[in-house]
Specification:
This protein is an all-alpha fold. Helix content is 77%, strand content 2%. The chain has eight helices and two strands; from the N terminus they run H-E-H-H-E-H-H-H-H-H. The longest helix has 44 residues. It is flat, with a radius of gyration of 21 Å. The protein starts with 7 loop residues before the first helix and ends with a helix.
C-alpha cells in the first residue's frame, strides 16, 4: 500500500478518465473526501500488487508435491485466468464505463432529473466495482472449462443447459454492472461467447479421450 502512495494522483486521473466530458461534474463534497479516496486506492492497489507474490509463494509450497502434468494444468489455468481478468478489466475501463455514464446521463435528462455535481466517492466506487466485476465475471468460463476438463461437467450438459446459462449470465451481468442495459449487454455477450468456446474445448477433450480408450482397447 505504501508503494501505491506516490502514484495516487496518476491513479486518480486514471479513475476519473471514464467520466469523459463530464469529468468537471465529479467533485469532492467533504473535507475527508481525499483521505477516503486515497485509502480506497491504497487498499485495492496494494491488493493488486501483492496478489502475484502471494500466488508465487503458494505455488512454491504446492508444486513439489504435484506431478508434471498437474503443474502444467495449474500454470495454464493461472495464465488463462490472468489473461481473462485483464481482458475483463480492459473491456470495463475502455468501453463499458464511459458508455454507462453516458446512458445514465441520458436517462437523467429523459426523466427530468438535473445532475450538476457527482460525488467523487460515488464515481470511484462505480469505477472500481465495475472493473472488479468484469474481471471476476470473465473467470466463470475458466471454472467451467476446468470442471469439464477433469470430467465433472460433460459438454452435453453444458449444451443442453445453454438457454438456462444465457439467462443466468444476463442476470449476473445485470447485478454486477451499473444500472443501465448497455453495460449488461457488454458484459453478457462476451461471457456467452466464452461459454460456447468452453463447450467446444470440452467436447474436443472428450473426443481425444475417447480415441485414446479405443486405441488402448
Amino acid at each position: 500500500e505504501i508503494l501505491i502512495l506516490p502514484f495516487a494522483p496518476q491513479i486518480m486521473h486514471w479513475l476519473l478518465a471514464p467520466a469523459g466530458s463530464s469529468k468537471g461534474m465529479v467533485q469532492g463534497l467533504g473535507w475527508s473526501s481525499g483521505v477516503s479516496i486515497l485509502l480506497k486506492i491504497m487498499l485495492w492497489g496494494g491488493t493488486a500488487l501483492s496478489l502475484p507474490f502471494l500466488i508465487f509463494f503458494i505455488m512454491r509450497f504446492v508444486f513439489p508435491g504435484l506431478k508434471r502434468s498437474e503443474r502444467s494444468i495449474i500454470m495454464f489455468c493461472l495464465s488463462a485466468s490472468t489473461v481473462l481478468f485483464a481482458a475483463g478489466v480492459f473491456m470495463a475501463y475502455a468501453a463499458t464505463l464511459e458508455i454507462a455514464i453516458r446512458v445514465m446521463q441520458k436517462v437523467n435528462e429523459w426523466v427530468g432529473v438535473r445532475v450538476e455535481i457527482v460525488r467523487m466517492e460515488e464515481h470511484i466506487d462505480i469505477v472500481i466495482k465495475t472493473i472488479i466485476a468484469f474481471g471476476l465475471a470473465f473467470q466463470v468460463p475458466l471454472l467451467l472449462l476446468a470442471l469439464g476438463w477433469i470430467g465433472i461437467i460433460p459438454s452435453e450438459v453444458l449444451r443442453t443447459r445453454r438457454r438456462i446459462a444465457i439467462v443466468v449470465i444476463f442476470v449476473l451481468a445485470m447485478v454486477l454492472t451499473p444500472p443501465d442495459p448497455v453495460s449488461q449487454i457488454v458484459m453478457a455477450v462476451p461471457m456467452c461467447l466464452l461459454y460456447e468456446v468452453c463447450i467446444w474445448i470440452i467436447r474436443l477433450r472428450e473426443l481425444a479421450k475417447k480415441k485414446d480408450r479405443e486405441a488402448e482397447a
